[in-house]
Design goal:
The chain is of the alpha/beta class and 679 residues long. The protein contains 16 helices and 36 strands. Strands 8-7-6-18-31 form a 5-stranded parallel β-sheet, covered by helices on one side. Helix 1 runs parallel beside helix 5 (129-147) and helix 6 packs parallel to helix 7.
């Protein structure tokens, strides 16, 4: 392995050293060629070796490998290094890795500094190797300058409530709650609707196993409700929260169920008000006092207060008039971490999109799934008064949209992402229909077929064997759904330019058109603001890093589960929920949490209590003015609450007396880095 060493690295290691002497080791990573194919790493190492206080410089093909980390540990022991720098990929990828390395060797982890020379150098200057090499030298020189001023820091240690809050009672929330409780932590689960199960309860079978969706769901619900450490609140919402990881306080509002068990059946029978049944995607109606579906949990019916004026409903039971009233109750909870499992919304086609809302023969795929369930066992299917012989299924409705072609959402953005599960769900429904009614003709009109999961491709193969006819359109030439001329045997026509037949323009006569609608992020703006978490560009909730921290948000102690984070099928949602549960369990199981020490620090000798820092701080309770006695006088000084501070540095720039610094990133360190780059 190529290495570069300075002269002291070749000397006998048993030399007398001053304990206060700064001894820096600098390591330049080849990154498997990602850096070394552009940057002359040996030249960089040689140049950095001439810097003051640098006693070891090396290069390595992969510093993050076990061998690379072992090299650092050996050098710390042999050469008495008390500062370590690695020039490699972005800090977000392996800074924690190398902090762990120096910690194992006995150094304070915050005496390590990471310099990014891949994303900031080799990847952006691949056409200028000489310039990239010079830039790498300057970046590492800046790292050396900062390292001279590094101080040992201690993590922020906080007591933690061994109690987690799970928001959402769908399959992801249920699984997260169960996994957390199985590890010995208390769990409170909040579900906004009256019943558990979420969208999984609306499905009949799951792919690729073919297992009953509700049977699997009910098994999980039974595990959750039987666990002594789990408390469930339905019709409940989080309306306020403050605090920090390990010690969050929340205000919960729970609405009344409206009816008691002893009056439930009589009240349902007496209720005369009907509304569209969301469980069947508005294909049927239900009463305002209702159960979502047979076997739902809780089994006690609930009043749909959203469809009751002023939160009241009058019913007459056995000749006696009764007024049912929503009487919300509020209560407070203290917990250490939050799992956000709020699920997703289905894309609602706009009026006229592929004939939706204008032609009664056009429905969405979720409606079609419920339609098949409602007519299970029927020997033939009919819709809108005519038999169903031809079904056209159109993919990517509300997904993979293009600006200028597709109509934007209310926020002005198009859904340019793939919803991932629509293709396999469409094939799943097509195969089910073919199995039940083999004589029905199915036309699958698609842009791309994406059967990405294990066993999913078999659904495409099965559909082909079932003689499902596939037609492919381009994203800039969308199919058109129109009413058929009067007197035609089939009520609608799907016009498509089919690129499987080299652009042939075809017309498909259809009795039913099924739109494979995509997944949309749920509208939870109030919750996002309350939790201080962030949505991504696709408007789903954003994780810190898709590979290294895939379920964590930027807010310590708040994690994501399931399709709140993006389109996922049931298996993926459950896996993400288990990952979120593991994060929470590791965080809270000891009753203490540790946070990084990069927070604001006040120099009381310089602070004059102007309060400018408090005015500019955007984080609740992160910094405040407190009265204290200094030299016999009562004065006001800024005090930082480390658990609430994120180390953004806004207060540092605002302080007129320079009394504030961010630990680990002080102004003196920045100035030293700038000087090193400039010289």
């Amino acid at each position: 392995m190529p290495e570069a060493k300075n002269k002291e690295d070749n000397q006998n290691s048993n030399i007398t050293r001053n304990d206060d002497e700064i001894r820096i080791g600098v390591y330049t990573c080849y990154c498997g060629g990602n850096i070394s194919d552009v940057v002359q790493c040996e030249k960089v190492a040689k140049a950095i070796g001439r810097e003051e206080n640098v006693v070891v410089t090396r290069t390595n093909m992969s510093m993050c490998s076990d061998a690379g980390q072992a090299m650092i540990e050996e050098d710390i022991a042999e050469h008495g290094l008390n500062r370590v720098i690695v020039g490699a990929c972005a800090p977000s990828l392996h800074e924690q890795t190398f902090r762990g390395t120096v910690t194992r060797a006995g150094l304070n982890p915050y005496l390590y500094h990471h310099v990014g020379i891949r994303e900031q150098d080799s990847w952006v200057h691949h056409d200028d190797p000489e310039g990239a090499t010079e830039k790498a030298i300057r970046l590492l020189s800046a790292g050396v300058a900062k390292s001279r001023l590094l101080e040992p820091l201690d993590s922020i240690c906080l007591d933690a409530e061994k109690h987690a809050l799970v928001i959402g009672g769908g399959v992801a929330g249920l699984r997260a709650a169960w996994d957390i409780a199985r590890r010995g932590l208390r769990v409170t689960l909040l579900e906004k609707t009256p019943f558990l199960g979420g969208r999984m309860a609306q499905l009949e079978t799951m792919f690729p196993t073919g297992e009953s969706a509700r049977d699997a769901l009910h098994k999980l619900i039974e595990e959750v409700i039987a666990h002594p450490l789990i408390t469930i609140f339905t019709q409940a919402e989080l309306v306020g929260m403050f605090g920090y990881v390990g010690n969050y306080q929340a205000r919960i509002v729970q609405h009344s169920r409206g009816v008691s068990d002893d009056l439930a059946e009589a009240a349902m029978e007496a209720c005369q008000t009907e509304v569209a049944d969301a469980y069947n995607h508005n294909l049927t109606k239900r009463k305002v006092i209702y159960r979502a579906y047979p076997g739902c949990y809780p089994s006690t019916p609930a009043v749909d207060w959203e469809n009751c004026p002023d939160g009241h409903l009058e019913v007459e039971i056995d000749g006696r008039k009764m007024t049912l009233e929503d009487k919300p109750k509020e209560f407070d909870l203290t917990f250490g971490a939050v799992v956000v499992a709020t699920g997703f919304n289905l894309y609602e086609p706009y009026q006229g999109e592929y004939g939706y809302g204008e032609l009664p023969e056009v429905m969405t795929l979720p409606q079609f799934i419920r339609f098949l369930a409602l007519h299970e066992g029927d020997n033939e299917l009919s819709w809108n008064g005519h038999p169903i012989a031809n079904v056209a299924m159109i993919h990517c409705v509300g997904s993979r949209q293009i600006e200028g072609i597709n109509q934007p959402q209310p926020d002005g953005n198009v859904n340019n992402y793939c919803s991932r599960i629509c293709c396999i769900a469409t094939l799943h429904a097509a195969n089910e229909l073919k199995e039940r009614l083999p004589d029905v003709n199915i036309f699958d009109v698609y842009e791309d077929i994406r059967t990405y999961g294990r066993g999913h491709e078999e659904y495409y193969t099965e559909a082909s064997a079932n003689k499902v006819r596939f037609l492919r359109f381009h994203d800039d030439e969308l199919p058109e759904v129109v009413a058929a001329p009067e007197g035609e045997a089939h009520p609608v026509i799907v016009k498509v330019k089919d690129y499987l037949t080299w652009g042939e323009e075809l017309e498909i006569p259809a009795d039913l058109v099924v739109l494979a609608v995509g997944i949309m992020p749920r509208q939870i703006d109030d919750l996002i603001k309350m939790l201080k978490i962030s949505p991504g560009t696709d408007r789903f909730l954003l994780e810190v890093h898709p590979k290294l921290r895939p379920v964590e948000t930027a807010v310590p102690g708040i994690v994501l589960a399931g399709s709140a984070q993006g389109p996922m099928n049931i298996q993926e949602s459950v896996a993400a929920a288990s990952a979120a549960a593991a994060k929470v369990s590791v965080l809270l199981s000891s009753g203490r949490v540790e946070l990084e020490p990069f927070v604001a620090r006040v120099n009381l000798d310089r602070c004059d209590g102007t309060g400018t820092c408090v005015e500019v701080c955007q984080y609740e309770d992160a910094i405040a003015l407190e009265t204290m006695t200094i030299d016999g006088k009562e004065v006001q000084r800024a005090v930082v609450t480390p658990a609430n501070c994120v180390g953004c540095g806004v207060c540092v720039g605002a302080c007129p007396t320079r009394a504030l610094d961010v630990q680990g990133w002080t102004i003196d360190q920045y100035e030293a880095m700038v000087d090193a780059i400039a010289l």
